[in-house]
Amino acid sequence: MAAKKRAETMAENREKLINAARKAFAEKGFAAASMDDLTAAAGLTRGALYHNFGDKRGLLAAVVNQIDGEMAARAQAIGAQKDDPWEGLLAEGEAYIEMALEPEVQRIVLLDGPAFLGDPSQWPSQNQCLVATRELVEKLVASAFLKPVDPEAAARLLTGAALNAALWIAASENPADILPKAIDAFRVLSTGLLATPATR
């Protein structure tokens, strides 16, 4: 029972720290957010932060993983509403790109994330997204809906295009002006994978 209680307390502490950090990083940015302020906001000590995440960067990684995972789930839900799996895949990519306009996503995932955690394509949340995209591309290639392209390569380029479009939007001076250009180019690039009617 003691071990179970300890595990529950640890999980609660992790959640408190992630929630406090998410708010602090969104409002102030990772660099300006004080560890003392966010641990105080969570009602915990620096020791709890070090124990659960190693350091402030480890906490950022946990926050980015949570938000990016939520983004992927939201995008997949939008894609699932389409009857056509290809249109669903495009809708998913476009939804992910559009989320670059959200202040929390912009600041934490697309600006501070790459600056302090490195290449986003290596993040666990991005790899999960890649697996789901590859599986769908495999089915579309097998059914001759797409050209006979390597599914891994196509999935990496599709997810990479959506991610880089989102990064571009977040870093631009006028994100709302960039969004339609990015989505249009994403759709044009993606449709190059489609098989011609004669070869289906």
Structural class: mainly alpha
Largest sheet: none
What value does the Rg take, in angstroms?
20 Å
Number of domains: 2
Shape: elongated
Helix content: over 70%
Summarize the helix and strand pattern as letters. Answer: HHHHHHHHH
Name the poorly predicted regions: none
CATH fold-level name of the largest domain: Tetracycline Repressor, domain 2
| Number of helices, where a helix is a run of at least 4 consecutive DSSP H or I residues | 9
Q: Please tell me the overall pLDDT.
A: 91
DNA-binding region: 34-53
GO molecular function: DNA-binding transcription factor activity; transcription cis-regulatory region binding
InterPro entries: Homeodomain-like_sf, HTH-type_TetR-like_transc_reg, HTH_TetR, Rv0078-like_C
Keywords: DNA-binding
Concise overview:
With 200 residues, the protein is mostly helical. The protein contains nine helices and no strands.
What do you see in this structure?
This protein has helices at residues 2-28, 35-42, 46-53, 56-80, 85-98, 103-117, 124-142, 151-171, 175-191. It is mainly α and 200 residues long. It folds into two domains: 1-54, Homeodomain-like (Arc Repressor Mutant, subunit A); 63-199, Orthogonal Bundle (Tetracycline Repressor, domain 2). The chain is elongated, with a radius of gyration of 20 Å. The model has no long low-confidence stretch (mean pLDDT 91).
Task: Annotate the secondary structure layout.
Layout lengths: L1 H27 L6 H8 L3 H8 L2 H25 L4 H14 L4 H15 L6 H19 L8 H21 L3 H17 L9
Helix pairs in contact: 1-2, 1-3, 1-4, 1-6, 3-4, 4-5, 4-6, 4-7, 5-8, 5-9, 6-8, 7-8, 8-9
